[in-house]
């Protein structure tokens, strides 16, 4: 395992996390962050970069599958967790790719409906999923560098011509708001899912590689990919902040990215970016539906029928959800993320820790505590906050929608202390 292997793995990880849908989030965060853009960047990168990369480091340690992440709680819990993650994946981030494609690549050219776009889009997704074409693998390798070059040009042009007037922030709690916005990248969930794919890829390339050498490659590649994501996301946040007076305050996420691109590089470059983003969204949707269908196929004794049925279901759900605009899908995703993201974060953190600090008892205690203390935030996100209004003030950090953090930390320390106490 040499430097070339590390570089290739780092770029693969960067490409997997660098979803086209994610690109619409940082500019609007920056647009509204004002002079506190740096605090917003830290919050966003905490949940959208650091946690996902820690997820990759956990995979480097486990060198297994997504199922291994939660099996210390119990095999049944781990299986349920896997089902929930895949269900969320085909219901929210997959349809969102169709909406992003419509708003950035279709709507500016043709006056058609979201529904028509999503029907054609997911019909094509289905064709690629059932035929498992490798065309997208080749295209995907070209898309990320092309999008990256355009984004670097946008960021560089903005910084070169900027007066560095950021204005005032619109956020009451910029740091925690940015952390929650980072949930919308789905990258922590992505780390749990795609980390196993990276392991398989490395094993196929070098079946004789030792556990330690694979661990070393994945860890170094993970940090390199994380550095790249940090620089791009921070650059987009700064860019958005520098355009705070240039557009209407209610501008949508996709429109903001398109308009910034037009102002910095011109309409031709913006059209090129829109097409590239649309293609990148398509490869992401194919990957999500294929991954979900593969998982269900494996649960049903490698049944090809289960694969096809899941692919059809995933595409039908994509059409139904894809007919809504991006901002609506992001709003709808919030309750699901308020439930599954805290669980995913603690699973990642526990799997990164040395075994002596994270035995099965610690996993069970921390995960159960996280689920219980995430309930008020989940209920609040679906409009039932009044039902727990008497409890929430007693939970530290609940005003920031992070009421699970301190209880989970306390249980982690307590269970470790009790389990290590002399009997």
Molecular structure report:
This protein is mainly alpha-helical and 423 residues long. The protein has two domains: 3-352, Amino acid/polyamine transporter I; 353-423, no CATH class. Helices cover 75% and strands 0% of the residues. It has helices at 3-17, 25-33, 37-62, 75-91, 93-106, 114-131, 135-161, 174-183, 187-205, 211-242, 253-265, 267-299, 304-322, 326-352, 360-381, 405-420. The radius of gyration is 21 Å and the shape is globular.
CATH superfamily of the largest domain, please? Amino acid/polyamine transporter I
Largest sheet: number of strands, sense, barrel closure:
none
Shape, principal axes of CA atoms: globular
Number of domains: 2
CATH topology call of the largest domain: Amino acid/polyamine transporter I
Would you tell me the overall average pLDDT? 87
C-alpha end-to-end distance: 45 Å
Write the H/E string, N to C: HHHHHHHHHHHHHHHH
What is the tally of helical segments?
A: 16
Number of strands: 0
Runs in which pLDDT lies below 50 for 5 or more consecutive residues are: none
What characteristics describe this protein?
single chain, 423 residues, mainly alpha, Amino acid/polyamine transporter I, 2 domains, globular, Brnchd-chn_aa_trnsp_Livcs, membrane, cell membrane, transmembrane
Q: What is the topology?
A:
Elements: H1 3-17, H2 25-33, H3 37-62, H4 75-91, H5 93-106, H6 114-131, H7 135-161, H8 174-183, H9 187-205, H10 211-242, H11 253-265, H12 267-299, H13 304-322, H14 326-352, H15 360-381, H16 405-420
Helix pairs in contact: 1-9, 1-10, 2-3, 2-10, 3-8, 3-9, 3-10, 3-14, 4-12, 5-6, 5-12, 5-13, 6-12, 6-13, 7-10, 7-11, 7-12, 11-12, 12-13, 14-15, 15-16
